[in-house]
Amino acid sequence: MRAAVQRQYGGPGVLETTGLADPRPDRAHAVIEVRAAALNWHDVLVRRGQYGSPLPHVPGADGAGVDSETGAEVVVLPSLRWGDEESAPGPDWEILGDRRHGTYAEKVRVPRDCVFPKPAALTWAQAAALPLVGLTTYRALFARGRLRAGESLLVLGAGGGVATMAVSLAAAAGAHVAVTSSSDAKIAGAAELGALGGVRYDRQGWVEAAVAMSPGRRGFDVVLDPVGSWADALAAVRTGGRLVVLGASRGESVTLAVRPFYFGQYDLLGTTMGSARDFEGLLRLRAEREVPPPVIDRVFPLERAAAAHEYLESGRGFGKIVLSAEAEGNA
C-alpha cells in the first residue's frame, strides 16, 4: 500500500509517499481501506516529534473508508482505549497516529470497537473530517461545557476545524453563537453556518465588542477557547459562566487573577478528544438535527501530504483539509 511516511521529525518536507506492507485484520482489529484522511493540528505536533512517535511513522488520526472484510462504509473513531470513566481518559488512552500507524495511507489497522458506520449523507472527505474534530467539539460543548438550547456561546477563532464544527453543532442545538476572527471573510463564513456574527480579535477592544453581542451585554454563558487565550476569553464569560479550553496554539501558559475568578463563580474546564459514548452522542445529534456537513477547505492527493501540511500551517484555510487516497484532489 501507499502511505505518507516520516522517517524523522521536522517540517512538512519529512512526509514522503512510499510503499509499505499491507496491514492484516485479526480478532481484535479491522483493516480499513482508506478513501480519505483529514488533517488536524495534532498531526503537525506528531510530525514535529512532540509526542515521540516511533519512527518511521505514518501520521493521521482521522479517516473514512471501507471495511476490508465486510465492505461496509465506515468512519474511524481516533480515540483509542478511553477507559471506563467518562470524566477523563484512562492511563492506556491514545490517539490514532500517535504510537501506531495512522490514516495517511491506503489502509489502516484499528481496534474493531473504533469502527462506526459512515453517515450516509456525507462524502468521503466530509466523513473523514468528522471524527476527531466532531468528537472533540461535541465533548467540549455538551459533555464538559453543558451547553443548552437558548444559551449563548462565543467561539474564539472562526476558521479552524473546531471552530466551524462548534458553530454548526451549537447552532443546531439551539444556542446563540458568536465568533472571533482576524478575517471578515471567516466571520461571514461562520454566519453561513449559523453564527449571529462576530468580532475582529486583531482590533483593540475586541473583548468589549464581543460582550456587546451577548444577551443583555452581560457576557456569554460559554466561551470555547481552542487557542489558549484564557485571560481574554474569561473576560467575555458572564458571571457564573463556563470557559472551556481545548488548545494552546497561541500560548502555552497564562496568568489569571485569583480573586476575580472565584468571586465571579466561573467554571474553568479542560477537555480533549472524547469517548465512544461522546461519539455516539455526536452521531445522534447529527441524525436528529439539521447539522451542516463538516466544512472542507481543500482536498489534496495522498502524494501531496507535505503540501497539505504547509497549507494547514499557513492558517489561510476555512474548515478542514483532507487527503484523498483515491483521487487527485483539487489542490
Automatic annotation (TrEMBL):
Keywords, ordered alphabetically: Membrane, Transmembrane, Transmembrane helix
Residues of the Enoyl reductase (ER) domain: 13-323
Presence of keyword Transmembrane helix: yes
SMART domains: PKS_ER
SUPFAM superfamilies per record: GroES-like, NAD(P)-binding Rossmann-fold domains
Residues covered by region (Disordered): 1-22
Key word Magnesium present: no
Protein name: Zinc-binding dehydrogenase
Gene3D superfamilies, per the entry: Medium-chain alcohol dehydrogenases, catalytic domain, NAD(P)-binding Rossmann-like Domain
Pfam families: ADH_N, ADH_zinc_N
